[in-house]
Specification:
The protein is α/β, with parallel strands linked by helices and 264 residues long. The protein is 25% helix and 21% strand. The longest helix is centred in the last third of the chain and has 18 residues.
Length: 264
């Protein structure tokens, strides 16, 4: 397929802030993407572009989030650092849960820019949490602390091999993507989660053991597409017994293609 006809998906950046003790790029801020999610998006032929933070880069140019939102066809927010509790009106319960305020502001600016031009948005893990906060929801800063009887949703040793079951809510778009499927197995790599769901969204799946929200979607279908998963679909392996997330990716890219057709 010619490049001009391929979907162009913006992928949010992870931040590694300036660290004078780092042996490489000492004192420099790094922005990067995790390879697996880029490859997952490219698996259907879409082109992926990391959207760097333009703040402070206006010495010789005027590139903004809006420029990227107009040029690209859709946006994916991927995982990474905790969301800063101040983003939803709380103080950190522990210093280690202070999150990344700089990245929060960057991600929220990206969301606002892409939504303003009607471009679809999909969130993964932190991306789900950030979207919930951006639209007025709140988070559990640490599931084990605030939901004492919860499943251990993040195990640093097993990482993406930490699994649990999720129930899909009947009648939702997610249930329509997996007809006849009520319960699926997913990976779990997070210690924060949705506490108060934003009124903008409906929950499409819940963790079986503790009721943690695992998937959300925008209620108002007349508005631009926004959906997100708490698990990492890009980590699915074909020979595993976890849910095959190809249908989720196809759903997002179909929305991207439809929005592109409307705007072109």
């Amino acid at each position: 397929m010619p490049s001009a006809h391929r979907l162009k998906i913006g992928l949010s950046a992870c931040f590694s802030h300036a660290d004078p003790t780092r042996s490489l790029f000492t004192g420099k801020t790094l922005q990067y993407v995790e390879q697996t999610i880029a490859h997952w998006l490219m698996s259907t032929g879409a082109m992926v572009v990391m959207v760097p933070c333009p703040t402070g880069s206006t010495q010789r140019g005027d590139v903004t989030y809006a420029h990227y939102a107009h040029w690209l066809d859709g946006l994916v927010l991927h995982g990474g650092a905790d969301v800063w509790p101040g983003s939803y009106g709380e103080a950190p319960l522990e210093e280690q849960w202070s999150g990344d305020r700089v990245r929060d502001e960057y991600d929220k600016a990206l969301v606002a820019a892409f939504e303003s031009v009607g471009k679809p948005i999909f969130g993964v893990c932190r991306g789900l949490q950030l979207l919930n906060v951006a639209f007025g929801g709140t988070l559990f800063q640490d599931i084990q602390t605030q939901v004492p009887d919860s499943f251990i949703h993040r195990d640093a040793t097993t990482y993406e091999q930490n699994f649990h079951s999720v129930d899909i809510v009947p009648g939702t778009q997610l249930s329509r993507l997996y007809p006849g499927v009520e319960r699926v197995r997913v990976n779990s790599i997070h210690h924060q989660a949705i506490k108060d769901l934003s009124p903008e969204f409906e929950a499409e799946a819940f963790s079986v053991s503790d009721g943690i929200v695992e998937a959300i979607r925008r209620k108002d279908r007349s508005k631009s597409y926004i959906a997100a998963l708490q698990w990492h679909p890009e980590f699915h392996k074909p020979d595993s017994d976890t849910i095959d997330d190809a249908a989720v990716l196809d759903d997002f890219l179909a929305a991207v293609a439809a929005a592109k057709g409307v705007s072109s």
